[in-house]
Design a protein that fits this description.
This protein has a 7-stranded mixed sheet with strand order 15-16-17-14-13-19-20, sandwiched between helices. It has about 475 residues and is an alpha/beta fold. Helices cover about 40% and strands about 25% of the residues. Helix 9 (about 265-280) links the parallel strand 13 (about 255-260) and strand 14 (about 290-295). The chain folds into 2 domains: about 5-250 and about 460-480, Aldehyde Dehydrogenase, Chain A, domain 1, CATH 3.40.605; about 255-450, 3-Layer(aba) Sandwich (Aldehyde Dehydrogenase, Chain A, domain 2), CATH 3.40.309. It has helices at about 45-60, 65-80, 85-95, 100-120, 155-170, 185-195, 210-220, 230-240, 265-280, 295-310, 330-345, 380-385, 400-410, 425-435, 465-470, and strands spanning about 5, 10, 15, 25-30, 35-40, 125-130, 135-140, 145-150, 170-175, 200-205, 220-230, 245-250, 255-260, 290-295, 350, 370-375, 390-400, 415, 415-420, 440, 455, 460, 475-480. It binds NADPH dihydro-nicotinamide-adenine-dinucleotide phosphate.
Length: about 475
């Protein structure tokens, strides 16, 4: 595998140095040490990537669907064959337990390619008959060169969630992973070459958001942007792309409620609640960061929840036993600790955690935090309103269903919610009223790739997944033929 200390750009099917000749340090969160150098790209590299894409576009957009299917399926197989290498790379880059990368991130990245490889074979467009007058049919054509920008928390999974539908639909892509976690994206280039993806169909450019990401958003020949990341960055991207009428899909932050009713299966609600709060050190946009519990079971829930959290094993992410690894960067760790100070000033009771976690040996300088459980704060404080995006969860009590719904909806965000109840009527009633793009009932993170995915309110606009993604990455044209 073409891994090394220099993470180069992948343009026109070749690994190339950044035009600036400059490199950025890439840190391993578990050790706090630099372990590779990342291309520091700017608009000149984006220009080269767009040119490579434009060269490939005529071939790729007219490639038979069966061939697109075959190549994308081969990419999925290539990812699966390198499960261990990719999982390790993702863990080193991100700080997440390698077991999580092996079980979730990498298999789901392969699933993204496989899903859209098959989806494009079944994608149909509509026709509308005007009896005796005309027939309309809809052509859904590739947009051309599209931009995909992804964050650091689920690096390969979210990167491929965008790239797979874009190329399935016949587009060519200029993609940028987060500069904090570039390694798996770097390895993907080689997998694409092996699978026979024509050079230039996927171009991967590394660098910072302001230099490299923004150059993608600003490039006049890139006609659509699919972005996942923070809400403030999403707003900035929209302010550049919207006035020049680029198509935009924005998947942004969340402050997801996890509602536990008195009739819930409490054991399930607690074990899944711990997972949903602390998987990937709480750095999943879908993590439940506000747990709302009916007052009659609140004490029991908090006691058992804290007991389970206290048994989570914080360890070197490379250890197969690690359940909590390192957070992604020194800056992010400082940001989370600052949020914990704010919580204390707001009067929080720290029911568990709240401190840095000092590791020894290889990881002594890594970015480790205790999982933290907060109680005693009202919903309208900063701790319960702002996205912390770390291993921090706040638990509140409610007295009745309407209050639970009101608390859940009292947020600028609207990404996801979980509802725990054994009452079917209540499950439907509550799901209908929650203002989030996805509502899980008695589960969390269960994903069917055919379903629309995305957020309401400040969690974004547009939907990914299934036909929604293929629609986003195509332009609909109506052809109206009048009968003679
Ligand atoms: P950021 O918004 O900081 O970055 C996301 C991506 O955008 C990175 O590749 C970043 O590059 C790039 N970027 C930054 N500035 C610009 C710019 N001006 N123009 C173009 N691109 C830019 O988010 P994080 O990486 O910190 O990710 C965490 C956020 O992502 C959280 O808010 C989380 O909720 C959200 N998220 C949402 C998901 C969803 O599906 N709704 C899923 C996962 C995460 P670089 O990192 O190199 O600076």
């Amino acid at each position: 595998m073409n891994s090394g200390n220099f993470i180069k750009n992948f343009i026109g099917g070749k690994y190339v140095n950044p035009i600036s000749g400059e490199w950025l340090d890439n840190y391993e969160p578990a050790t706090g040490q630099v372990y590779s150098q990342i291309a520091k790209s700017d608009k000149r590299d984006i220009e080269a990537a767009v040119a490579a894409g434009e060269n490939a576009l005529p071939i790729w957009r007219s490639t038979a669907l069966e061939d697109r299917f075959r190549i994308m399926n081969a990419i999925a197989e290539g990812i699966e064959r390198r499960l261990d290498t990719l999982a390790e790379a993702e863990s080193v880059d991100n700080g997440k337990p390698v077991s999580l990368a092996r079980k979730v991130d990498i298999p789901r990245a392969a699933a993204n390619f496989r899903f859209f490889a098959t989806a494009i074979m079944h994608y149909a467009s509509e026709s509308h008959h005007m009896p005796g007058v005309a027939i309309n049919y809809t052509l859904r054509q590739p947009i051309g060169v599209v931009g995909c920008i992804s964050p650091w928390n689920l690096p390969l999974y979210l990167f491929t969630w965008k790239i797979a539908p874009a190329i399935a639909a016949g587009n060519v892509v200029v993609a940028k992973p987060s500069e904090i976690t570039p390694m798996t994206a770097y390895l993907l280039g080689e997998i694409c070459n092996e699978a026979g993806l024509p050079p230039g169909v996927l171009n991967i450019v590394h660098g910072t958001g302001p230099d490299c990401g923004q150059a993608i958003v600003e490039h006049k020949n890139i006609k659509a942007i699919s972005f996942t990341g923070g809400t403030a960055t999403g707003a900035r991207i929209a302010s550049i792309a919207a006035p020049v009428f680029k198509k935009l899909s924005l998947e942004l932050g969340g402050k997801n409620p996890n509602i536990v009713f008195e009739d819930a299966d409490l054991q399930q609600a607690i074990s899944t609640g711990v997972l949903s709060s602390f998987s990937n050190q709480g750095q999943i946009c879908l993590c439940g960061s506000r747990i709302l519990v009916h007052r009659s079971v609140y004490d029991q829930y908090v006691e058992q929840f804290v007991e389970k959290v206290s048994r989570l094993r914080i360890d070197d992410p490379m250890s197969p036993n690690a359940q909590i690894g390192a957070v992604v960067s020194a800056e992010h760790k400082a940001k989370i600790l600052n949020h914990l100070n704010i919580a204390r000033q707001e009067g929080a009771k720290i029911a568990y955690g709240g401190q840095e976690y000092q590791m020894t040996g290889r990881c002594k300088d890594g970015y480790f935090l205790q999982p933290t459980v907060i109680t005693g704060l009202p919903n309208n404080c900063r701790t319960n309103q702002e996205e912390i995006f770390g291993p921090v969860v706040s638990i509140q009590a409610f007295d009745h269903e309407e209050e639970a719904i009101a608390l859940a909806n009292d947020s600028p965000y609207g990404l996801a919610a979980s509802v725990w109840t054994e009452n079917l009527n209540r499950a439907h009633r509550v799901a209908e009223q929650i203002q989030t793009g996805i509502v899980w009932v008695n589960c969390w993170l269960l994903r069917d790739l055919r379903t629309p995915f995305g957020g309401m309110k400040n969690s974004g606009v547009g939907r990914e997944g299934g036909w929604e993604a293929l629609r986003f990455f195509t332009e609909a044209k109506n052809v109206c033929i009048k009968h003679n």
